[in-house]
Amino acid sequence: MEARAASPDLWDNPQAAQSLLRELSALRSEVEGLKTLAARIDDALELAQMDDESLRAELEAEAEQIEEELRSRELAAMLSGPYDRNNAILAIHAGAGGTDAHDWAAMLQRMYLRWAERHGYKTEILDYTPGEEAGTKSITIAVNGPNAYGYLRSEKGVHRLVRLSPFDAAHRRHTSFALVEVLPQVEDEVEVEINPKDIRIDTFKAAGAGGQNVQKNATAVRITHIPTGIVVSCQNERSLTQNKENALKVLKARLLEIRQREQEEKIAELRGEYTKAEWGSQIRSYVLHPYQMVKDHRTGYEVGNAQAVLDGELDGFIEAYLKQAE
Description:
By secondary structure, this protein is of the alpha+beta class.
């Protein structure tokens, strides 16, 4: 790849050149990371062989850090899907249940932003619709960083919350649902053709909380893909052009998902395994009352500390899902 990157005719095809350089950069980073890890292990072994009691605390701390990085790299090695290395688009939609459901969507929003922050991912809110009284009705977030889609695809599905409602005067127990969508961000070289005749682009003023207009100019964009009926809107940027680019990015991701789903359904039908995914078939339950537990119904993995999960500790669930999918 380095030889190809050094070729004098590299930029004859700019799109292919950019793709090559992106992949080369990712591979270089991975190889250098492994070399650094190997060097740290060698250094730690040398210190251990000195049998110096004064170095014990330092060695134990280093061993823990090395184990954590090794675990992280083992998890990354499980990513084998065609788009697992891509950036991701995460969308959260509140289900039925009014204010409780909107609050649940906001709790999930915070959970994923916390998880992304812990892993050094950059996040950008592309579109946001607040709940009528509180919380979030829907939100679309770009999550950018190595393997973002590979990790987050385990979160795709319906998430169920059981708790004593803070919005119920009688403080009764409520069950709320939210749908999480995870899509791979499509690189330019991936063929997702959008015929300009197949889309309708509308512009409108970006709305803030309480119906206030964020700006006087119509910078928000809504794109309708006529053949499929998919509607995508982006209003977070102050630039009409940027919002249009982001909306097209989300539309491409949704069209790619449709294509992938159709292929998977055909294979599942041939195997006799196909069952339609319904809204009510939740993938994970978060119980805050009468006890605390978060359980993934696909893998059986569960955690008693629900608050830690809601604070972004999702790696156990992601690891269990990836191991089962291997």
